[in-house]
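Hi R.,

Here are the chain sequences for the assembly we discussed:
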Amino acid sequence: MEPLGSYKSIISARATDSRILKRSQDGGIVSAVFIYGLENNILDGVIVADKEENFKPVPKVVTTPEEVLEAAGTKYTVCPNLSVLKSAIREYGCERIGVVGTPCQIISLRKVLKYPVGFRHLVNKVALLLGIFCMENFPYMGMKTIVEELCGVKLEDVVKMDIGKGKFWVYTRWGDAKSIKLKKTHPYEQISCHVCTDYTAELADISTGSVGSPDGWSTVLIRSEKGEEIINKMIEEGYLETKPVDEGKFGLGILKKLALTKKEKNMKEIEHRKELGLPVPPKVC
Amino acid sequence: MTEVVNITPTTRHEGHAKLILEVDGEGIVSKAYYINTTPVRGFETMLVGRPAEFAPIAVMRICGICQTTHGIASCSAIEDAIGCEVPEDGLLLRELVGLGNRMHSHPLHHLLTLEDFIKPEEETLKIDTIKLIQRMRKVGQLIVDTVGGEGIHPPNIVIGGMRTNISERAKAKLYYALKQYEKDAYMMYEIYVELVERYLEEVGIPDLGSHDYPYIASHTTYGDRYAINWDGVVEIPPHRYYKDIKIAESTSVMIPLYEGVPAEGGPRARLVKFGNFRSGGSVMDINIARAKENLGAVYRAMEILDELDINGKTRTTPEYRDGFGIGVHEAPRATNTHFAEVGKDGRIKSYKIIAASTWNFPVVEKAIEGYPHQYAEVIMRAYDI
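And here is the predicted structure of the full complex:
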């Protein structure tokens, strides 16, 4: 089993723009790519996961770098990004849209592009798919329970959430950091995530996530020519600084290990559900 | 001696119907029946007891071509019933989405009638005209896509206004599309006037399909419930309209009457009432009026884009109360009228629709009568129902 899917190259990178780094989860790759795309007419609209009060995620079509910045950062809860796909090409009149999504959203979007039933005029208007690494996700109430009950922090005080070093971290606007062991969050996961075998958004043009790179940097998997072209241009023009990915145990090693863990663990769950006669997803990755 | 000519089904028009013609010894139609064979679907009954928000979504499904107009008429009937004021930008967008629909439906109609006027040897003209028609329809559909959120059964038409505004980019896109449409609509108009005039000349009946029934129209580009005398509007069962019970039982429409008689709605009616278009002429005038309306639509659409504030509010949240309301929208084919009674629980108490095309059913019959039977379908197609 190839843990990371097919890709052209893999690097560690981070945005050079301090405005991005200030707001982003790790290396700010998604924000940087979208901003670069919008500023250079490669994209004319992007679909992002923004948040309202209390970390309530809202999918949005945005058309300016400022709005992209506004939406930066991981939400750790489901955000139905694909629900605004049609708005992007209808009311917003976009022709070259970029979409960021979790692996499942990227798979769905690829399927939409392949079989665009109910998505007239969409196919040639999706210009770039950015995937983010994802082990599992939490429904909103699950996330709320983790933050408020397990970590003891009011959602309205939260400025950032993170998963790292085996823990779920919550940072408050008062400067505190609370954490709980990741193990404790398992009961609050979406059960649909347990039959997903895609950790690194294998069908995206570019996939990114923190795993495999040092703090403040992101690992970037460049998968398609389109993805390669935009990343190369960004490096050339100084939008990204890069370094070779750490091939060792705490770099590529851990990324591959986690990707493989997700595949193996969830394949077991799929087999288990099959035995019970329950529906399972078709093999896509 | 009277002979009966049956044309079943009638072709190249929107809908399902048949013509039964009583023809005299000289081939002239003495009595015409235009029978609607679309099965009864019961939209009016289906809505009773359902949430009002469901009404526009459901009634849009009455038709796959002029769905927009049903959505608009339905929303405005319910808004009238509960006294809900739509913000100005919402109204502009609604008018625009309706015009987008007209700007695609009218050229589609040209496509259906084209075959009547063009000669087999005019292959190039035919292909060019069809290309022109398709280009125009694309613009119409682009407007509905952009403003309505979807080209067919647009979900943005909601009670209280429009679900969302459009972006600056979208507005610019529509502007350039309209500029193209403007040119195309002029070309289309010229082609159609020429074709229709030549056709009438060759047929040798300059007043083919004329009738002296009144016109019904409320507005040129949108709809105005105050322009119609509602006391004069009735819809009677076909049993009371047709003497022949068999005919009455075979049609699936009610017969709408205005001031006691059938009334023609649609492009000619609008242009006669609000312009200086010739009234009482050949039914072929409707085809010309339709081509003319494309121009009216494109200019109004451009004006709307100018007036529209893309940051403006497009919707108010409806507050339900007991009431009865009327919604009127000038559909491509005639005046679309919806009547809704709503309860304070936000549910539909009763609902009634006189769909645009329905107005013209009895008029088609009158227009066919008195002319040679071989032109019956051409006359019917001028109304396209």
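The interface with chain A takes residues 145-151, 156, 164-167, 169-174 of chain B (CB under 8 Å). The longest helix of chain B spans residues 168-203.

Let me know if anything looks off.

Best,
T.
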